[in-house]
Amino acid sequence: MSDIRAPRRWRTVIVWFRRDLRLHDHPALLDAVEHADRVYPLFVFDHQLLSGRWPSPNRISFMRDSAMELDASLGAIGSRLHVRLGRPAEVVSAFAKEVGADAVVVSRDYGPYARSRDAEVAAALAGDDRTFHARRGLLVHEPEDVRTQAGQRFSIYSPFRRAFERLEQREPRPAAARVPTPQDAAVGEWPSLASLTPGTPAPGLITPGEAAARDRLDAWTGGGLAEYHARRNDLARDGTSRLSQDLHWGLLSGAEVYARCGGPGRGPEKFRGELTWREFYTHLLWHEPSVTRQPLSPPYETPPWQDDPEGLEAWKEGRTGYPVVDASMRQVRALGWMHNRARLIVASFLTKDLLIDYREGERHFMWHLTDGDLANNNGGWQWTASVGTDRQPIFRIFNPTLQATRFDPDGDFVRRWVPELANVPSESVHEPWRMSREMQERVGCVIGRDYPAPIVDHAQARSRALEAFRG
Fold first, then answer.
1. pTM of this structure
2. DSSP at 223
3. Is 7's pLDDT higher than 50?
4. Residue pair 36/264 in contact by the 8 Å Cβ criterion
5. Band of pLDDT at residue 317, cut at 50, 70 and 90
6. Run of H or E including 360
7. Domain match, 146 and 214 both
8. What is the dihedral of CA 61, 65, 70, 75, to 10 degrees?
9. Rounded Cα gap, residues 57 and 79, in angstroms
């Protein structure tokens, strides 16, 4: 695979869209338009991704609808998105034969499956004397570009960010004005959502497609970005960008978001730092693909995880008895999204209070999250479980009540997602079990009847976790 630097024009090129469902700042598409006489956009519904290790009705729904919008956008500039279903090594090479393509160009992807898939496709194309080219497009900087002075990968975020920021930023490119696509190939039919996933998408999924993503970016840069440093952890009023699914599916390019979210002030500085965390975890995945199945740096000889199926189910269903944990878990079931502060709280609760293997949480998040990104989800879970980068097990045991009182002081977030607590006063909403029985009856929230008692005592659970991780 190679970055496109074509010294000649191709006759026919296929642009295979994957996690880059946009027209703006799409280097692979723009280079194909510049270097080819004919361009065939292609989208493949990949059986392995639909029903493999990380299935998700929310992501499948969002992906399908975003791809359909991309098709409409291509139609407006003289093209269309050709749709196929199956194993990429078979269907991409078959489509290349169908249209007589010289080459297939893509935006480079970084996970273990993506790399093996692309190698298979490249080999299948090579058998017919066709070429495969992977172009930058998902990240701000490539994994090979951000290295230590010794040429090694970074294992700690802070020095990674310093090296990352020293590199020259790629300038975002404009959208293609026209894509020369002949009308001689079968377009294919869009599969129904029911045929792609047995699950039902969450009722509150965010609006898919590039147009909605660009609206969100405009609203963010013109509003909340300036105060991001002050509001990013506010659970009730949500001072986050809501761009995570747009970055995951490439409705926006990382380079454009990074460029547009610069400028003076603590808000842009902090937000760019969060974007850099995304790059850090993706680079880590590229260098250490084994992290998708094993901890990067386990601090133990014998894993501390305990078998607790009842605790796991209570956590998944939002009935742990800790209101901020339960509100967060119910939020993700309803929206296919969870506030980042909430993700840290629930991840700490699962891995430290319950001592349940972080991979159970990773799997649950990947089922629900529309922005479920292999690198960032895995990196976040390992960080919180103290088995990944920047490991500090003693300090990463979040007290759910203190987190709630700090980031949801009036209980508005909790009451929104846990209606059983709607009438509980603010001073009791994060620890409703401390109310007197008389007060519980008065506000209509009897612990053990209307809302569960805490399934663990946090102080005892914290002591147990510290002992377990010391091993």
1. 0.96
2. T
3. no
4. no
5. very high
6. helix 358-368
7. yes
8. 140
9. 29
Q: Which residue bears the tokens 């969450």?
A: 202
What is the number of other CB atoms lying within 10 angstroms of the CB of residue 140?
A: 23
Claim to verify: residue 87 and residue 144 sit in the same structural domain = no
Look-up of token digits 């191709």: 10
Please tell me whether residues 322 and 445 are part of one structural domain: yes
Q: Are residues 23 and 131 in the same domain?
A: yes
CATH, residue 394: 1.10.579.10
Which residue, of 254, 287, 320, is where some domain finishes?
Answer: 287
For residue 156, the tally of other CB atoms under 10 A from its CB is 11
Average predicted confidence (pLDDT) for the chain: 95
Tokens 């293609």 -> residue? 176
Q: Is residue 353 part of a domain?
A: yes
Same domain, 132 and 165: no
Q: In angstroms, rounded to a whole number, what is the distance separating the alpha carbons of residues 326 and 224?
A: 27
Q: Which residues pair with 38 in a beta bridge?
A: 12
The DSSP annotation for 7-45 comes to SS-EEEEEEEESS---STT-HHHHHHHHHEEEEEEEEEE
We report the CATH number of the domain holding residue 268 as 1.25.40.80
Q: Does pLDDT of 159 surpass 60?
A: yes
pLDDT, tens only, 10-67: 999 999 999 999 999 999 999 999 999 999 999 999 999 999 999 999 999 999 999 9
Which domain range does residue 43 map to? Answer: 10-137
Q: What is the CATH number of the domain that holds 112?
A: 3.40.50.620
Query: Does 1 score more than 60 pLDDT?
Result: no
Query: Are 448 and 388 in the same domain?
Result: yes
Task: Check: CB of residue 272 under 8 Å from CB of residue 262.
Answer: yes
- Dihedral of CA atoms 394, 400, 402, 407 in degrees, nearest 10, equals 120
Of the candidates 453, 146, 134, the residue with the CA atom closest to the CA atom of residue 314: 453
Give the DSSP H/E element, type plus range, for residue 211.
helix 210-221
Q: What is the pLDDT of residues 211-246, one digit of tens each?
A: 999 999 999 999 999 999 999 999 999 899 999 999
Strand partners, 447: 451
Has residue 337 been placed in a domain? yes
The reply to whether 275 and 422 lie within a common domain is: no
What distance in Å separates the CA atoms of residue 336 and residue 334, rounded to the nearest whole number?
6
- Judge if 132 and 55 occupy the same domain: yes
Beta strand pairing status for 36-46 and 10-17? parallel
Local confidence band at 96 (pLDDT 50, 70, 90 cut-offs): very high
- Integer Cα distance of 311 and 370 in angstroms: 25
Question: In the prediction, which pLDDT does 374 show?
Answer: 97
Tokens 């879970």 sit on residue:
381
Domain count, the chain: 3
Tell me, yes or no, whether 193 lies in a domain.
no
Residue 77, number of CB atoms within 10 A of its CB: 15
